[in-house]
Specification:
Layout: E1 3-8, E2 11-16, H1 27-42, E3 48-52, E4 57-59, H2 64-69, H3 78-87, E5 93-97, E6 100-102, H4 104-107, E7 114-118, E8 122-124, H5 138-146, H6 148-157, E9 161-162, H7 163-169, E10 174-176, H8 178-194, H9 197-230, H10 233-243
Parallel strand pairs: 2-3, 3-5, 4-6, 5-7, 6-8, 7-10
Antiparallel strand pairs: 1-2, 8-9
Amino acid sequence: MDIQITKDNGILTIGFNREEKKNAITAAMYQQLADAIKDAETDNAVRAILFTGKPQAFSAGNDLEDFLKNPPNSKEAPVFKFLWEISHASKPVVAAVSGVAVGIGTTLLLHCDLVYAADNAKFSMPFTQLGLCPEAASSLLLPHLVGYQRAAEKLLLGEAFDAAEARDMGIVNRVLTVEELLPYAQKQAAKLAALPASSIRVTKQLMKKNRVAATETQMAVEIDHFAKMLTAPEAKEAFTAFFEKRKPDFTKFV
C-alpha cells in the first residue's frame, strides 16, 4: 500500500509508503489520505493523528506523471479533498518529517499542530519554478507564521531550506536525529492521546477559529489560480523541461 494506515492506542498513523518514488503522491493516495482523516473525525478510538514518511523522504510532493493525467481542476479533486480534511481536522495532528519534503510535503505541515523533523530534512515549495502558485492556503498561513519577507523568499524563489531553518522560522517544533525522530513523535502523539479529548479539541478550535474562514477563502482562491496556471504555457514548459531533464526557459513568457 502506498499509504499505510494503522490504529494503535488512540493514534491513527498515516504513513507515506512509496519509497521507490520518494513518496510522491498520486490522486489515489490523496483520496486515501482524505478518507482516513474524515473517518478519524467520527472514530472515538482515534484521539491523535500522526503523519510519517521514510528516512530519506517524507514526500517529494505530487507525482508529476499522475498529476498531469489527473489534473486537480476542481474542488472535487482528491488533493483538495485531502487539504480540506486536514485543514478542518478537529483532532490533533502530529508530523514526523525526515528527508525531502517538497511542495505539499511542506505545505501540509502548516495544518499540523506539532511538527518534528530529522536533521536530514529538506523543505521546499517550488510552485513558481513549475509555473504554478501556492496551495493549501500556504500563501496566507506561511506569512502569518514566519513573516512576509521570509515567506516571500520561500514561496517566490522556491528554494530548499534545512531543518534548522525550519525550526528557526517556527514551522518545526524540534529537530532530532533520524533515529530519534519517529519514537519522539510517537511519544508526543501518545501524550496527546492520553489527555482529555474534549479539552484538546476545544483548545485547538480556539487557537484556530479566527483563521478558519480566511483559510477556506484563501484555499478557494488558490485553487482557481492553480487550475488556470496548470494549463498555461509556463507550466507546460516547466513540466516538459522536467521530463526532458533540462533547465526551463521562461524568458519568452511575460
